[in-house]
Design goal:
Elements lengths: L7 H10 L4 H17 L11 E9 L5 E7 L16 E3 H6 L8 H10 L13 H6 L4 E5 L2 H7 L4 H9 L3 E4 L6 H13 L5 E4 L3 E6 L2 H23 L11 H5 L1 H20 L8 E5 L2 H7 L4 H4 L10 H4 L4 E3 L1 H5 L1 H26 L13 E4 L3 E6 L2 H23 L8 H8 L2 H4 L14 E5 L4 H11 L4 E6 L2 H11 L4 E4 L7 H13 L4 E4 L14 H29 L3 E6 L12 H21 L4 E8 L9 H10 L4 H5 L10 H13 L6 E5 L10
Parallel strand pairs: 5-6, 9-10, 12-13, 12-15, 13-14, 15-16, 16-17, 17-18
Antiparallel strand pairs: 1-2, 1-4, 2-3, 4-7, 6-7, 8-11, 10-11
Length: 688
């Protein structure tokens, strides 16, 4: 059951914040209910759905004019603001209904020409449908229950059974001018209806107030849910929770699959360095039940619940059965190649139908259904992969409902192709140049510390997805909050037995694999070597050498499974080459790590794995905290600023300088076995 979350007090707060202008207050209610809708994943996912309201405003001459505020392209209903509902002059839109035909280009141009603010985003591709309906408020969603209903073979009869004359069906037509005209004609023939069911597409509800439209939307959805439950005798499990047993198998398949798809993408783009995709694994309750179905193979070729999904999920998933998994790399590669061949045939056949005017998108899958493992979203970055797996989980619910209540019959492959290759739909994904490190998964040990977090921020700024490993849960949480969405991590002691496998497995579950390991974590113990307890030296070696060695070994295993190279970056130290009095317990294991770096570069180079490092000095982190800085400066009779700038450049070296240096090494495509000094100039610590 979908909850009605309208609250009079909250609605008033939105209106009061908008000021005294009546139109702005009405728009504030539109923002409020849009957020209620967008914040419920049972109703819309990832930019899906749209909302509108019709208001009266004054033009620049003070004359009243009717204005349609409708969701703008690129905005998500769950976080929408007034700017995300651009105002469009309504009368010119309504006049379009008299036309017999209107091209997509002319439709978009006319909508933009009538924006109140020329800097606004493009209005929704379904703007005309909102405009042609007479109601003040119009809401459009892709609720799972409504999609199950819309994809039934007898959808019209079921709508009549549930709603009588309160809802009416509109045949499937791609969004745009033609759909808007037909929907308006259907409404004109049934002017007392509360909403529309768009066959194979979704649901519209409307009303003369924000509350009325929202109340109807929720009530309609719950009536359909009740019918589905009554008809099937069950409510399909939602996509919550996880399966430890399924997730445990992820490390066996995801890096291999990621590497295979990455290799095929590189071949398609003719760019051998094209990044591997990022993956998002789901093992929720509905996924567990769905993956165990005996008709899984047939459903994998049935299609998507609504054509809006296709730009993120493609037409079908690649199905990896238990038998294919047992066949290893060769069998998994064949499954991917078979998928590519099928997609290429789908493209070739439909492109010929359109006169050969389209250019094929990447033919590799955006989804994988893996028996015993789960559903996997596959895309260029974590956000897009997460969206794909969200939509896949919804699609599974819709399929389950539909099959239990008469059958799941979505649009035809021809209609799906037209949607997938529709220029207005493709525009939603954006065409800008991707960030330099998009698609790269970067694991950073000690990622909650000063240098680790600064390094994470430097990589994230260039589009990388970060996996942080830190001893302290509070430091991990703070770091992830700082980085924002699209990143993950785990709290553990990296010196503990098996910590490296635990961390890499968690990274694989989060992103599908690993591209760059920044082995950063370390700590300094002090004391004269002649008096240093053996236990202290062993403890330092565990953290400052063996942890680096074990994590590098685990990373190399992932790189091997992926078959696409990789990088290992060590935070060494100037102590490795320029020992300081009383710092032997720190410098000696760091010197061993310095040699480890070169040894790994020598041994892993043939796999395409680059191994480099940073020798930094005098950074405010770890041992070199504010108290230590003050103490050392006082001992030398200088101020703290002068102490921290004790180098050739006479300027303090900060954590972000180290982070930027790690990124520079990551981008140096033909550099390996190199150690870069980041110390402002310390001749005693120079390597050459």
């Amino acid at each position: 059951m979908v909850l009605n979350r309208w609250n009079d007090s909250d609605a008033k707060k939105f209106m009061d914040a908008a000021g005294d202008d009546p139109a702005d207050r009405e728009l504030a209610l539109r923002v409020y209910t849009s957020r209620l809708i967008g914040g419920d994943l049972n109703l819309v996912l990832h930019g899906g759905g749209n909302t509108s309201c019709k208001l009266e405003r004054q033009d620049i001459f003070g004359n009243p004019e009717k204005v349609l505020h409708v969701k703008g392209s690129g905005w998500d209903l769950g976080i929408i603001e007034a700017a995300g509902l651009p105002g469009v002059r309504l009368d010119p839109l309504v006049k379009l209904r008299a036309l017999n035909a209107l091209s997509d280009e002319d439709m978009v141009n006319l909508q933009r020409a009538n924006l109140l603010d020329s800097t606004s985003p493009n209005p929704s591709v379904e703007t005309l449908l909102h405009a042609f309906l007479p109601h003040k408020y119009v809401d459009h969603t892709h609720a799972s229950a409504m999609l199950a209903l819309a994809d039934l073979p007898n959808a019209e009869a079921v709508v009549k059974e549930i709603f009588g004359n309160r809802l009416v069906c509109v045949p499937f037509i791609m969004p745009g001018f033609e759909l808007a005209k037909v929907a308006a004609e259907v409404y004109d023939a049934n002017p007392d209806v509360e909403g529309l069911i768009l066959i194979n597409h979704g649901h519209f509800a409307f009303g003369d107030s924000a509350k009325e439209s929202y109340d109807r939307l929720i009530a309609h959805t719950n009536e359909v849910e009740a019918w589905l439950q009554k008809t099937s005798g069950q409510v399909p499990a939602v996509a919550t929770g996880s399966s430890e047993a399924m997730e445990a198998k992820a490390a066996e398949i995801l890096p291999m699959l990621r590497g295979i798809i990455g290799t095929r993408n590189a071949g398609f783009t003719k760019n051998r360095d094209f990044p591997m995709p990022v993956m998002n694994l789901r093992t929720g309750a509905n996924v567990q039940a769905f993956i165990a179905r005996d008709d899984l193979a047939a459903l994998s070729r049935r299609g998507v619940a609504t054509p809006d999904h296709v730009i993120r999920t493609k037409n079908y998933p690649v199905l990896i059965t238990a038998e294919i998994m047992a066949g290893g790399h060769k069998a998994v590669a064949k499954a991917v190649d078979d998928y590519i061949a099928q997609y290429t045939d789908y493209f070739t056949t439909n492109n010929a139908r359109l006169g050969g005017i389209k250019t094929m998108l990447m033919p590799t899958p955006n989804l994988a259904w893996i028996e015993g493992v789960g559903v996997v979203g596959i895309s260029a970055n974590a956000k897009a992969a997460n969206a794909a797996s969200d939509l896949a989980a919804q699609n599974m619910n819709v399929m389950t409902n539909g099959e239990a209540c008469g059958g799941f019959h979505p649009v035809s492959p021809e209609q799906l192709f037209d949607m997938e290759y529709w220029s207005l739909e493709q525009a939603k994904l954006g065409k800008g140049k991707p960030p330099a490190l998009q698609g790269r998964v970067v694991m950073i040990t000690g990622g909650g510390g000063a240098i680790g977090l600064a390094t994470a921020q430097s990589f994230a700024a260039l589009g990388a997805n970060i996996f942080i490993v830190d001893l302290e849960p509070s430091a991990l949480d703070a770091a992830l909050n700082t980085l924002g969405a699209g990143h993950a991590g785990i709290a553990l002691d990296i010196t503990a037995e098996g910590a490296e496998d635990q961390a890499t497995d968690a990274c694989i579950r989060a992103f599908g694999g690993l591209d760059i390991l920044v082995s950063n974590a370390g700590a300094a113990w002090t004391g004269e070597m002649a008096n240093l307890p053996d236990e202290t030296l062993r403890k330092s070696f565990e953290l400052n050498f063996f942890a680096h060695q074990r994590f590098a070994k685990a990373a190399a295993a992932v790189f091997k499974a992926q078959g696409r190279g990789g990088q290992i970056l060590f935070n060494v130290s100037k102590q490795a080459v320029n020992p300081g009095k009383g710092f032997g317990a720190y410098g000696i294991p760091k010197a061993a790590t310095f040699f480890l770096l070169r040894q790994l570069a020598l041994e892993l180079g043939s796999m395409g794995v680059r191994v480099n490092g940073i020798n930094a000095d005098r950074i405010r982190s770890g041992l070199l905290d504010e108290d230590f800085v003050a103490e050392r400066a006082k001992a030398r009779g200088i101020d703290e600023e002068t102490y921290m700038a004790g180098n050739l450049l006479k300027r303090e070296v900060e954590a972000h300088h180290v982070g930027n240096a790690f990124v520079a090494l990551a981008l140096s495509e033909r550099t390996t076995a190199h150690v870069m000094t980041v110390d402002g100039g310390n001749i005693e610590a120079a390597l050459r």
